[in-house]
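hey can u check if this looks right to u? its 440 residues, i copy pasted from the old doc so theres a chance i mangled smth
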Amino acid sequence: MSSSHTSERRYQSGFGNEYATEAVAGALPQGRNSPQRAPFDLYPELISGSAFTAPRHENRRSWLYRRQPSVVAGRYQPYAQPHWHTGGDRAIAVPPEPMRWHPSPLPANLADIDFVDGVHTMCANGDADAQQGVAAHIYMAGRSMERRAFVNADGEILFVPQQGRVVITSEMGVLEIKPGEIALVPRGVVFKVALPDGPSRGYLCENYGAQFRLPELGPIGSNGLANARDFQAPVAAYEHAEQDGKVAYELVKKFGGRFWTAPTSHSPFNVVAWHGNLSPVKYDTANFMTIGSISFDHPDPSIFTVLTSPSDTPGTANCDFVIFPPRWLVMEDTFRPPWYHRNVMSEFMGLVYGEYDAKPGGFKPGGASLHNAMVPHGPDEEAFDKASHADLKPQKLDNTLAFMFESRYRFIPTASALHSPSLDTDYADCWAGLKDQFKT
């Protein structure tokens, strides 16, 4: 398997493609998925990301050809990860007001913390068993996982790194992402995380609902936003690990909101070849084709949607992943930042780098904000005053990347988030200076 320090990696192109890749020539069976004896005496194994009878355009599955099947593992024992929560705790009273958190300081013992132990839930909604809703997490880690692997049976995971590169080794191969890039790991796919730059921090969206997909483009037409060709999937790779009964890996599994651990005598990353349309993918947000107004008014933020997880209500998402990347503002006679609004959707927001134009001072990279359904929010006093009197020349918003996990369900912060020293208890004061300016 490729080293985590490899600078040039090979990828396959596309989103939800029928990929086919082999690390050893001839390892993929031809003409059938499960021959009586697979090439090189590999074990065929199917991983399904959707029900067998899901419509063809929504059906996701891949066939893996591996040295040992994933059923070969020791017995599971409970594992403690007290900071990672599943679903919203409806017993927690959440005030109907805007909330914001400053970046959490990296813990003093970060060198001892890997990705699995470094995830802290900020807020969540829905129910993983009901397959609806999402959770928003912050991860802070200082150690690569090495001989530990993780599999999430509750949902897919969207990585949004904010500090430091992340190398994701999965059953299907290796993805490397840096701040400004994202990665999506499907539910049930085993992976581990390496940190080639040392201490690392970022955001996660754990999606319990319908799988993320590219949004429909409607009147935008056949091109624009995130184009499928810019997504990249890994090529097959496998690693050698101890055999002969020695413990090669610790496998940590999230299942029904609880964590479990089991030893394995082999590497879970032993897939020599695979084909199908269920795979981890990465995407560079610099390739996002931004759509915007070239006449007047600030358009709805839905034009910044990279991926969407639909719900059973058409046009109302279980979760939208939205980015606010560098872009030109050219609208005439227009208040260019976002307007003041109350939205039926709930918004968890993070900042990867730079400044967010509606909160230029108080919103820091690595921080987060939460504006739940029907909670009023918008530009702070400084941003409103500046935009109201700006000379409306073409303006480039550069060196900035903010994002949003937007959901139809109310986000419920965890108790630890509500009592965190990083909670900005003065956040609402940023609007206090907005005076009544009505003149007749």
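DSSP finds two helices and 28 strands in the chain.
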